[in-house]
Design goal:
The chain has three domains: about 40-245, no CATH class; about 265-470, no CATH class; about 475-553, no CATH class. The protein is built from 20 helices and no strands. The protein has helices at about 5-10, 10-65, 65-80, 85-120, 125-130, 135-150, 155-190, 195-235, 245-285, 290-330, 335-360, 365-370, 380-385, 390-405, 410-435, 440-465, 470-500, 505-525, 530-535, 540-550. Residues about 1-10 have low confidence and may be disordered.
């Protein structure tokens, strides 16, 4: 196998590395949010999530698109052997990140009160918002380093830094939230509002961990970069007749590359902030109390969205890993390889998204009860039952955004996200004003945005790459296998709960059984081939095991 071909087929393994790291990071995030919610409560989670919605928009505008842009530029230069230019791209990107991160931090510093209090009707989130100001600069620089390594085709530094970041985040967040909750209660007692101040200061404690985790990840990534650049610079010096672009030209290309990605990701991610503002203002107009609305939104963001974001993060990881490889083969004009990589990445994502959707739907209340150590058969469970399908839509839309960027169709996700956002807003307003669905209107609007986005992206991919979506093995077989698995898991859970009367045992055993059954059903229904299994990490071992069990011929 040629070197180029190895690179072209290695993206799924690299994607798996990032996907595994994302899963571990999400699990850590899910685990530490359990005590965090217990400490600051649903109201505190509303303040916490409001702060992050504001922070995330500024992060997206300032630097979220940097890793993808840097990985594209580095990948293109490395494929041409232009290592000196790679070094120059890195320098320009770091300068750009410091400027953009600082600008975003200044906006947050002077605009936080107006955004949180006036626009989003959540004034007590201001403490958590201001804690996140320096984090904008740290994460901007960190994003450049991660994008640099991904452009080189190595996902390991990004993966390890993600896990380190979440571990530190978890420890510091819980400790700081615990320390500041009691401090906030004392201040609130003096001011006559102990409950809100306690939750607000606790939420601020939770956001301290975000900055601490990002700083540790930056230090680790910087150390790896320092070690790598010694070798890289020696190799760059041996280049014959090197062609190096001017700094002005690189800045220009960087901005041209960033802007479409920036517009797409901003529109794609700002729907949460816009929805929050619309929802809270309409709820206020309808006469709902501020505390009641905060508790609703705390459940929605802290319990429902936290869980569904775990499998969705896998698609984001695959998108990050496939863009450099896809850009490489697209630039080389290898359209069959482009179609093959698109097909493989969509297949792999759907193989994971379908069982996660069904599993969360059928075990919604038991999973929430396991995670939060309380009876969650009410609002949170209903959200998860009806909203679990969003896992499929957001997984596919996140991935397809990356695929379109990989084939240099950067404007398409922007236009598609704008259309999806308009539909999302119309649905949310109609459901609240006409049907008075409360927080469930938010869940439905969330689903609609993902659905519209993935449909429009799929049409764009077909138009610009010529890729025709295969349905049977990508959607039908995983769907059938997931439904059969879901029925078996639901029945097994009911049986185990009758026998053991312990929710944790019933849920964990049911999930493990479901994963095993799903894998068997995929092989029996011919949803996975031997060739596809080879491309997965430890593929040969999986093939050997499947043949011993007579699941593969």
């Amino acid at each position: 196998m040629s070197k180029n071909k190895k690179r072209g087929t290695n993206f799924l393994v690299q994607g798996s590395v990032l996907a595994i790291a994302s899963i571990i990071s999400r699990i850590i995030g899910l685990v530490y949010r359990i005590p965090l919610i217990g400490i600051i409560g649903d109201k505190g989670m509303d303040y916490y999530s409001t702060a992050f919605d504001i922070y995330n928009i500024l992060l997206i505008i300032s630097s979220f698109s940097l890793p993808l842009a840097v990985s594209k530029l580095v990948s293109a230069d490395m494929s041409l052997g232009r290592k000196r230019n790679v070094s120059r791209v890195l320098k320009c990107s770091l300068i750009f990140s410091l400027i953009s991160g600082t600008a975003a931090a200044l906006v947050l510093m002077f605009g936080a009160d107006y955004i949180a209090g006036t626009l989003l009707k959540t004034p007590y989130s201001i403490f958590a918002v201001k804690v996140l100001i320096p984090t904008l600069i740290i994460v901007a620089v960190l994003g450049v380093l991660r994008g640099f390594f991904q452009g080189l085709g190595s996902m390991m530094p990004s993966a390890v830094s993600q896990i380190l970041e979440q571990i530190v985040n978890a420890i510091v967040s819980v400790w700081a939230a615990y320390a500041l909750v009691s401090y906030g209660a004392k201040i609130g007692a003096v001011l006559g509002n102990a409950d809100n101040y306690s939750a607000a200061y606790g939420a601020a404690g939770g956001t301290i961990g975000t900055g601490a985790g990002a700083l540790i990840a930056l230090l680790f990534s910087g150390f790896v970069l320092f070690a790598y650049m010694k070798v890289h610079n020696r190799q760059a010096k041996r280049e014959k007749n090197p062609k190096v672009d001017s700094y002005q030209y690189i800045f220009k290309i960087l901005i041209i590359t960033i802007l479409p990605i920036l517009l797409s990701t901003t529109i794609y991610n700002c729907n949460g902030l816009i929805d929050r503002g619309i929802f809270k203002n309409i709820a206020h107009y309808q006469g709902y109390g501020a505390n009641e609305v905060s508790e609703w939104y705390g459940i929605y963001s802290g319990k429902f969205k936290t869980l569904v974001n775990v499998p969705i993060s896998i698609a984001a990881a695959i998108a990050s890993s496939c863009v450099p490889a896809l850009t490489r083969v697209y630039t080389q004009g290898k359209m069959e390889e482009v179609k093959n990589q698109i097909h493989t990445s969509i297949r792999f994502t759907m193989l994971i998204a379908f069982p996660c959707t069904v599993g969360m739907g059928v075990l919604a209340a038991p999973i929430l009860q396991l995670v939060h150590f309380s009876d969650e058969s009410g609002m949170a469970a209903k959200m998860l039952i009806f909203g679990a399908v969003s896992v499929i839509f957001y997984s596919l839309s996140s991935l397809s955004n990356g695929l379109l960027q990989g084939i240099n169709r950067l404007k398409e996700p922007v236009k598609n996200a704008a259309v999806a956002l308009v539909v999302d807003i119309l649905v949310l307003v109609a459901l609240m004003l006409c049907f008075d669905l409360g927080i469930y209107a938010e869940v439905i609007a969330f689903i609609v945005f993902g659905l519209v986005m993935c449909v429009l992206n799929a049409l764009s991919i077909r138009k610009y790459s010529g890729y025709k979506q295969e349905m049977r093995r990508t959607f039908v077989i995983p769907g059938i296998a997931s439904v059969l698995m879901g029925a078996a898991v639901f029945g097994l859970y009911r049986l185990l709960i009758l026998i053991f009367r312990v929710n944790a045992i019933a849920v964990i055993v049911s999930i493990l059984f479901g994963a095993l059954l799903y894998a068997v059903l995929l092989l029996v229904l011919k949803g996975l081939t031997e060739t596809e299994l080879k491309r997965l990490p430890k593929g040969e071992l999986l093939i050997s095991l499947a043949k011993k069990l007579h699941l593969l011929a």
